[in-house]
User: Which sequence fits this backbone?
């Protein structure tokens, strides 16, 4: 999912001055993505500008030392060898010693460059991974319900890997190529201007080929990045739903879908490699033609005495080095196109706005009240997307502190939406939700999560011990506090009976525990959190009768003395509440104590009768 972008509203046609049409929307979006990726890269490198400058200085020095070599060769041919033939070995000795010294110093500066640039590169990659993870963690549930976890994983893995390849394997090649080409161009003009003009003339087709290559490869790699994200999404989906896939014999269909994505990925990379092949062949052809012309022209000038042989030898050595970096530029452009597409995806993800942003100036909850946890909905309207019908329509609701409210209604009536708004997983599209008189949108996220806790029927247990999963609510809680929370909800007996007690590993998603045991661990976690408001979204709907009874007793301990909103489908849960709210089509149709509503002739009485008949 891409972050929405906005543009100034266009006025009437008559009010706008006539002029050429702007670029198409696709090109404008591509330019915006490129600017965002460059800004991200600059922001990542800015804290490391001094080490980066030192690495660049080492690279410049190394290239300067490398460029001295052919000049020493020319000096040795034109002066050192003739003097040595006459018995004077001094000039040749100095040329050889200088060549060796330049080689040693160049090796030292190369080592320094890799040490410094490697450290900077790893720091940048660490910062990039941290930003992606932090942003994924900060974005609300609404975002993660529409932006699949596989796409987030793709940003953190495949896209970061593409940036890593660029930093580790290509930036050195780019900088070396630029410095080498620039330095050699100056030296060629100094050695012999006519031959240098032949070489520099070949740059015109090279520039045209490079521009073509960058444009075509960027398109191919954008397509590849989109496809690899889709592959990760579909693979993760198939693995997470492996039971359903096997139960409904959907292996072949999933295999065929994955093959189609793999074919698309292969085709995208094949297109990119074909572009690389054409560019590389064009660069080498241009270089070989220029080299042949220089060799022919230079040989003619040497034979006529217009050019020393050593100068021609140095010129040819420089010329070979001149075109070799252009081959490296093909490799760099190839990786750059992939990394640029990845950076665009990452920058787009990092720029995704939160639908439930933190307030700029948070308002603290009042702490001078003896009882806390009063919840209020004031004219709340809500729809999940602008193009969908409203789920809640002007809901007005007051839940006094300490009251237990059960919310019932048909599927789609808006029950779970009430819990999600109270937990501020979403913000209302109209009206406000208040806690102790303060709009939830004005509370800091830290304070909000400390005061309101949501427990669902499928609470997530992390791979780790039972102790660690309960302590998730309060990482600073000691073992005795964790055990006290488990005893309070009746979970201590089954936990103590586990092979390693509280240190028992629950395995992936708590698979070592039964559904009821996982729910008791979740309730112990909520008890340890000690929130002012507890939201229970169908917390017992998937349990059998004996397990539900155990969880019911745990819930009684958990609900005591705190505000509770229960989304329930079980009669026993509803009748234990202080108050029942019946929703239909996003509006309240009945509200009152369960006993009074059950004895009436309204919607809840009908529901009560159906429950009684269903349980026989």
Assistant:
């Amino acid at each position: 999912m891409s972050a929405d972008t906005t543009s100034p509203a266009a006025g009437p046609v008559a009010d706008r001055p006539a002029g050429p049409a702007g670029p198409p929307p696709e090109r404008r979006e591509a330019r915006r993505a490129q600017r965002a990726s460059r800004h991200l890269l600059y922001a990542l490198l800015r804290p490391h500008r001094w080490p980066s400058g030192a690495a660049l200085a080492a690279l410049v020095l190394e290239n300067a030392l490398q460029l001295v070599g052919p000049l020493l060769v020319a000096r040795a041919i034109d002066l050192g060898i003739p003097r040595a033939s006459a018995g004077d070995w001094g000039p040749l000795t100095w040329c050889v010693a200088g060549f060796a010294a330049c080689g040693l110093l160049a090796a030292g500066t190369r080592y320094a460059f890799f040490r410094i640039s490697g450290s900077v590169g790893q720091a940048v990659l660490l910062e990039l991974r941290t930003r992606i993870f932090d942003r994924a963690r900060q974005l609300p549930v609404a975002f993660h319900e529409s932006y699949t976890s596989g796409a987030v994983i793709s940003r953190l893995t495949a896209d970061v890997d593409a940036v890593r390849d660029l930093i580790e394997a290509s930036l050195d090649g780019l900088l070396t190529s630029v410095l080498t080409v620039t330095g050699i161009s100056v030296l060629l003009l100094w050695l012999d201007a006519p031959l240098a003009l032949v070489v520099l003339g070949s740059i015109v087709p090279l520039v045209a080929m490079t521009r073509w290559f960058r444009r075509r490869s960027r398109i191919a790699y954008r397509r590849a990045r989109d496809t690899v994200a889709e592959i990760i999404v579909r693979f993760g989906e198939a693995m997470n739903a492996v039971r359903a896939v096997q139960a409904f014999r959907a292996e072949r269909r999933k295999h065929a879908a994955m093959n189609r994505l793999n074919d698309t990925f292969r085709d995208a990379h094949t297109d990119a490699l074909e572009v690389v092949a054409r560019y590389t062949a064009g660069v080498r052809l241009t270089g070989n033609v220029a080299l042949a012309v220089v060799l022919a022209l230079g040989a003619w000038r040497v034979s006529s005495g217009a050019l020393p042989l050593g100068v021609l030898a140095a010129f040819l050595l420089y010329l070979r080095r001149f075109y070799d970096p252009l081959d490296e530029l093909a490799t760099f452009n190839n990786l750059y196109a992939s990394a640029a597409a990845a950076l665009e995806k990452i920058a787009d993800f990092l720029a995704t706005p939160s639908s439930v942003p933190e307030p700029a100036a948070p308002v603290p909850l009042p702490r001078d009240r003896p009882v806390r946890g009063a919840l209020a909905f004031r004219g709340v309207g809500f729809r999940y997307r602008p193009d969908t019908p409203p789920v809640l329509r002007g809901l007005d609701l007051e839940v006094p502190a300490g009251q237990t409210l059960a919310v019932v209604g048909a599927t789609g009536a808006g029950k779970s939406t009430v819990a999600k708004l109270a937990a501020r997983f979403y913000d209302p599209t109209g009206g406000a939700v208040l806690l102790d008189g303060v709009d939830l949108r004005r509370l800091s996220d830290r304070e909000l999560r400390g005061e309101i806790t949501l427990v669902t029927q499928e609470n997530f247990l992390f791979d780790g011990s039972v102790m660690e999963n309960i302590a998730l609510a309060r990482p600073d809680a000691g073992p005795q506090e964790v055990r006290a929370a488990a005893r309070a909800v009746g979970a201590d007996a089954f936990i103590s009976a586990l092979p390693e007690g509280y240190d028992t590993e629950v395995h992936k998603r708590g698979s070592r525990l039964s559904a009821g045991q996982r729910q008791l661990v979740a309730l112990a976690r909520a008890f340890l959190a000690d929130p002012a408001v507890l939201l229970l979204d169908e917390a017992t709907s998937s349990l059998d009768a004996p397990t539900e009874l155990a969880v019911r007793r745990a819930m009684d301990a958990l609900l005591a003395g705190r505000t509770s909103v229960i989304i329930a489908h079980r009669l026993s849960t509803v009748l234990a509440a202080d108050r029942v709210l019946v929703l239909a089509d996003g509006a309240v149709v009945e509200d009152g104590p369960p006993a009074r509503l059950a004895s009436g002739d309204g919607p809840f009485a009908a529901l009560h009768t159906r429950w009684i008949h269903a349980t026989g």
